[in-house]
Protein backbone atom coordinates (compact mmCIF):
# COMPACT_ATOMS: atom_id res chain seq x y z
CA UNK A 1 0.00 0.00 0.00
CA UNK A 2 3.00 2.27 0.05
CA UNK A 3 2.79 5.07 -2.47
CA UNK A 4 -0.97 5.00 -2.93
CA UNK A 5 -3.29 7.87 -2.13
CA UNK A 6 -5.75 5.61 -0.33
CA UNK A 7 -3.77 5.28 2.84
CA UNK A 8 -5.71 5.77 6.09
CA UNK A 9 -3.46 8.72 6.94
CA UNK A 10 -4.91 10.72 4.03
CA UNK A 11 -8.45 10.14 5.26
CA UNK A 12 -7.44 11.00 8.82
CA UNK A 13 -6.03 14.28 7.51
CA UNK A 14 -9.34 14.94 5.74
CA UNK A 15 -11.14 14.25 9.01
CA UNK A 16 -8.94 16.67 10.93
CA UNK A 17 -9.29 19.34 8.23
CA UNK A 18 -13.08 19.02 8.24
CA UNK A 19 -13.20 19.28 12.03
CA UNK A 20 -10.94 22.35 12.02
CA UNK A 21 -13.12 23.92 9.31
CA UNK A 22 -16.19 23.30 11.47
CA UNK A 23 -14.50 24.83 14.48
CA UNK A 24 -13.50 27.85 12.40
CA UNK A 25 -17.09 28.25 11.15
CA UNK A 26 -18.42 28.05 14.71
CA UNK A 27 -15.97 30.71 15.88
CA UNK A 28 -16.89 33.07 13.02
CA UNK A 29 -20.61 32.44 13.42
CA UNK A 30 -20.64 32.95 17.16
CA UNK A 31 -18.81 36.27 17.08
CA UNK A 32 -20.97 37.60 14.24
CA UNK A 33 -24.19 36.34 15.80
CA UNK A 34 -23.49 38.05 19.11
CA UNK A 35 -22.79 41.31 17.31
CA UNK A 36 -26.01 41.16 15.29
CA UNK A 37 -28.05 40.11 18.30
CA UNK A 38 -26.77 43.04 20.34
CA UNK A 39 -27.46 45.38 17.40
CA UNK A 40 -31.01 44.03 17.12
CA UNK A 41 -31.59 44.53 20.85
CA UNK A 42 -30.22 48.06 20.64
CA UNK A 43 -32.52 48.86 17.70
CA UNK A 44 -35.50 47.42 19.59
CA UNK A 45 -34.64 49.54 22.64
CA UNK A 46 -34.44 52.65 20.45
CA UNK A 47 -37.83 51.87 18.92
CA UNK A 48 -39.29 51.27 22.37
CA UNK A 49 -38.04 54.68 23.48
CA UNK A 50 -39.56 56.31 20.39
CA UNK A 51 -42.84 54.50 20.97
CA UNK A 52 -42.90 52.68 17.62
CA UNK A 53 -41.76 49.10 17.43
CA UNK A 54 -42.71 48.50 13.81
CA UNK A 55 -39.85 48.98 11.40
CA UNK A 56 -38.69 47.07 8.36
CA UNK A 57 -35.01 47.37 9.21
CA UNK A 58 -35.30 45.18 12.30
CA UNK A 59 -37.08 42.52 10.27
CA UNK A 60 -34.33 42.52 7.65
CA UNK A 61 -31.62 42.35 10.32
CA UNK A 62 -33.29 39.43 12.06
CA UNK A 63 -33.98 37.72 8.72
CA UNK A 64 -30.33 38.08 7.69
CA UNK A 65 -29.27 36.68 11.06
CA UNK A 66 -31.58 33.70 10.63
CA UNK A 67 -30.25 33.09 7.11
CA UNK A 68 -26.66 33.18 8.33
CA UNK A 69 -27.45 30.75 11.16
CA UNK A 70 -29.08 28.41 8.62
CA UNK A 71 -26.02 28.57 6.35
CA UNK A 72 -23.72 27.97 9.30
CA UNK A 73 -25.77 24.97 10.38
CA UNK A 74 -25.64 23.58 6.83
CA UNK A 75 -21.86 24.07 6.64
CA UNK A 76 -21.44 22.33 9.98
CA UNK A 77 -23.61 19.39 8.99
CA UNK A 78 -21.80 18.93 5.67
CA UNK A 79 -18.33 19.18 7.18
CA UNK A 80 -19.23 16.79 10.00
CA UNK A 81 -20.61 14.29 7.47
CA UNK A 82 -17.38 14.59 5.47
CA UNK A 83 -15.34 14.10 8.64
CA UNK A 84 -17.35 11.05 9.68
CA UNK A 85 -17.16 9.47 6.22
CA UNK A 86 -13.42 10.13 5.96
CA UNK A 87 -12.93 8.57 9.38
CA UNK A 88 -14.98 5.50 8.42
CA UNK A 89 -12.91 5.07 5.25
CA UNK A 90 -9.66 5.50 7.19
CA UNK A 91 -10.75 2.92 9.75
CA UNK A 92 -11.86 0.51 7.04
CA UNK A 93 -8.55 0.85 5.16
CA UNK A 94 -6.61 0.61 8.39
CA UNK A 95 -8.49 -2.52 9.39
CA UNK A 96 -7.70 -4.11 6.00
CA UNK A 97 -4.04 -3.30 6.44
CA UNK A 98 -4.20 -4.70 9.98
CA UNK A 99 -5.55 -8.06 8.78
CA UNK A 100 -2.97 -8.15 5.98
CA UNK A 101 -0.19 -7.47 8.48
CA UNK A 102 -1.47 -10.12 10.90
CA UNK A 103 -1.59 -12.68 8.10
CA UNK A 104 1.96 -11.82 7.06
CA UNK A 105 3.17 -12.01 10.67
CA UNK A 106 1.66 -15.47 11.06
CA UNK A 107 3.34 -16.60 7.84
CA UNK A 108 6.70 -15.27 9.05
CA UNK A 109 6.25 -16.96 12.44
CA UNK A 110 5.53 -20.24 10.66
CA UNK A 111 8.65 -19.83 8.49
CA UNK A 112 10.68 -19.02 11.59
CA UNK A 113 9.44 -22.17 13.36
CA UNK A 114 10.36 -24.25 10.31
CA UNK A 115 13.85 -22.71 10.19
CA UNK A 116 14.38 -23.32 13.91
CA UNK A 117 13.15 -26.87 13.57
CA UNK A 118 10.35 -26.52 16.14
Q: What is the H/E order?
A: HH
Radius of gyration: 28 Å
- The general outline is rod-shaped
- Class by alpha and beta content: mainly alpha
Proportion of β residues? Answer: under 5%
Oligomer: single chain
Structure summary, number of beta strands? 0
Mean pLDDT: 76
**Head-to-tail CA distance between termini:** 33 Å
As a percent range, the share of helical residues equals: over 70%
**Count of DSSP-assigned helices:** 2
> Mind summarizing the main beta sheet?
none
Low-confidence stretches: none
Q: Would you summarize the structure shown here?
A:
With 118 residues, this protein is mostly helical. The chain has helices at 8-50, 56-116.
Task: Explain what the structure shows.
The chain has about 120 residues and is mainly α. Helices cover about 90% and strands about 0% of the residues. The chain has 2 helices and no strands. It has helices at about 10-50, 55-115. The longest helix has about 60 residues, at about 55-115. It is rod-shaped, with a radius of gyration of 28 Å. The mean pLDDT is about 75.
Write the layout of secondary structure elements.
Blueprint: H1 8-50, H2 56-116
Helix pairs in contact: 1-2
Search tags:
118 residues, mainly alpha, 88% helix, rod-shaped
Amino acid sequence: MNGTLLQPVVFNIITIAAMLFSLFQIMIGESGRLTRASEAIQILEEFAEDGSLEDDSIISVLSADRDQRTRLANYLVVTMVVAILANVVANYLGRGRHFTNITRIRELETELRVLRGD
